[in-house]
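Give me the fold.
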Amino acid sequence: MKIIIDDKIPYIRGAFENVAEVIYLPGSKTTAEIVRDADAIITRTRTICNEKLLAGSSVKFIATATIGYDHIDTDYCDAAGIKWTNAPGCNSKSVEQYIASTLMVLAETKKLQLKDLCIGIVGVGNVGSKVEKICEIFGMKVLLNDPPRERTEGSKKFVSLETIKNEADIISLHVPLNLKGQDVTFHLGDENFFSSLKKKPVLINSCRGEVIETSAVKKALKAKQISSFVCDCWENEPDLDIELLKMTEIATPHIAGYSKDGKAKGTSMSVHAISNFFGLGLNNWQPSGVELPSDPIIEIDGEGMSEQEIFSIAILHTYDIRHDDKLLRLSPEHFEQQRGDYPTRREFPAFTIRTQRVEEKTLEKLKLLGFNAS
């Protein structure tokens, strides 16, 4: 069999060499001619898997090593009998870390006590549920909005979007991009959304760029309908709106899920999916060579420090979002390069915290965040 693999997928080289012919290609170089006699494709978001690419090919299975799959024409694949899979939740811990870093930077720059604030989480899937957990650890009031889950599970745990717009000091979006159907999220953040906000919240978008209408959020910032905007995902990226970039509080080049841990998990999920479909016997395969953090030990002396300050030291040691913000502002034209050359970022479990004079309850919360702490 023959497998076409996007050469940007990390840690995958060698996975199939004993069971298949493998061709590694940049996503932009994957053409209809190349895939004509391929059995499977493993891709990331830059390979557009549609009728133009797939018609007349022998492709039977597509795996994307990403949570999102809007680069796959699922209707065409379903009609053509091509099975496909994504990697749900693969980078959810990475986005959790991104949001944690965001909250700590916002708290520092705006002099906020997180325990006094209410956050509204819109979309409570793999990512949103992890954001819910960390915000509860920080002592925040958490409001959850997820209409599909509410229809299935009942309304006890969830609130309406109107409630979040009325009560939240911070709104964090974690929805898929739905262009049609009952739960359309395309331009969820439109002029009507912003005009109905009651508390001038901070808005965070780390899901999909098209969930926010660019012209509407710029108007909202100018009219002070929101106090600030944190943006990782942009409409029309990599050609982001420079005016909006200048107006954001924190701006990053769609890297919220770019930890090495998340990429490794997405790769393993794709390999396992291909293995299961074709019976290749690789169901226990795991990536090797995942880079270690340069400074995995965090020393914290908690004397005279608040719990939030301790959290901030630990979290920003693992990932300080301001570095990505600075780089994007300096060279927005290198949006794709910054993604492609993204440096090593490891999640909380890759770090050990050694503490002095830190209360036991705070230590336990650091462990709940995922740190190895003592």
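The radius of gyration is 21 Å.
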